[in-house]
Amino acid sequence: MDPMERQAELSRIDEELGRLFVRRMELAAEAAREKQDEGGFLPDRTAEREARARFRAQAGEALEDYAGVLYGTLTDVTRSWQAAVTRGPGPEGARITAALEVTPKLFPEKAAVVCQGVEGAYSQIAVEKLFREPSITYVSSFEAVFAAIAGGLGRYGVLPLENSTAGSVNRIYDLMMQYNFRIVRSARLKIDHNLLARPGASLSDIREIVSHEQAIRQCAGFLRGYPNIKVTPVENTAVAAKLVAESGRNDLAALSSRSCAELYGLATLASAVQDMGNNHTRFICISRTLEIYPGADRTSVMLTLPHRPGSLYRILARINALGINLTKLESRPLPDRDFEFMFYFDLDTPVYSPRFLRLMNDLPSLCDTFRYLGSYSEIV
């Protein structure tokens, strides 16, 4: 066939497919409304399976798998449309709309905030980047942050979620699921780790270095240059600096921030020793209640999926079909299920977009469990 004739025929086929798609959706909506009038709409799964089998058989052996994918996508889109014309806004969309109406128009400048560590921790720096006049309570662990907020000891908590070189802080994902808290804002910090010791100490004196495990990973290249120095993880980089200051030892050093050097009266033996200069940590601000402030353009969700082929694809296809940008996808194994995972998504979309609300209404029906973590803006 002549190339121009082939292209013309492809264009005609696409036009016909478009007309048939619109007609199919009209009929599907009509059927959904009729079933709703009869007492409730439920998809006919048996009819769908039979139609899918016929569709695959019609395509022939060479194309049957591709036809199956196409029909599955078409079925998912049809269900979404039927739900939209019969149910209207779902419960998740209704919660989001209600939160938009009651959340104040300005993010608070003053608040009681809980973070892990001690004074001088990177979490404290993140708190002060998020709030102008925070009242900070320090606790010893990430879970203690959640417990303190659950117990009413603070309105917000600030926690590290991911680092550009060391990856995600996986414990935070587990705690978000456990406590069902919401993200209300996030902040991105440039992280510089410095080797700090008591005044008068020199690098040749150091026999042990203490720091948080994330900082140790971020400075792995520097530490490999000193194989005879013992490396000990502690709860926090600021805790490490405080430990050095109070130790009375000149053979002990900490990987910590420059602000901790000033705060605890320590000397800097080496500056910015992290492996990568572009080292950033993203901190999230969490709350017991759903608050969505103006300008929210990032959404986080967590979900588990049926353990069968195509489950994740259907989620990704739905996000793609709505033209929403997926900025992060991460999986975590479920502790009580073999070879099954929880997925964490970050979506780049304005919270006021109708497509966003449609996605929030669609996703729960495709998941075993669905958790909307919040919509928020990020300070950089």
Q: Could you describe the 3D structure shown?
A:
The structure is a single chain. With 380 residues, this protein is of the alpha/beta class. Helices cover 44% and strands 25% of the residues. It has 13 helices and 16 strands. The strands form three sheets. Strands 1, 2, 3, 4, 5, 11 and 16 form a seven-stranded mixed beta sheet that branches. A five-stranded mixed beta sheet has the order 8-7-9-6-10. The protein has a four-stranded antiparallel beta sheet with strand order 13-14-12-15, sandwiched between helices. The protein is elongated.
Low-confidence stretches: none
Beta-strand fraction estimate: 25-35%
| Radius of gyration, in angstroms, nearest whole number | 27 Å
What is the typical, i.e. mean, pLDDT? 90
Main β-sheet description: 7 strands, mixed
Structural class: alpha/beta
Number of strands: 16
In N-to-C order, the SSE pattern is HHHHEHEHEEHEEEHHEHEHEEEHEEHEE
How far is the first residue's CA from the last residue's CA? 56 Å
Count of helix runs: 13
Instruction: Give the overall form.
Output: elongated
Percent helix: 40-55%
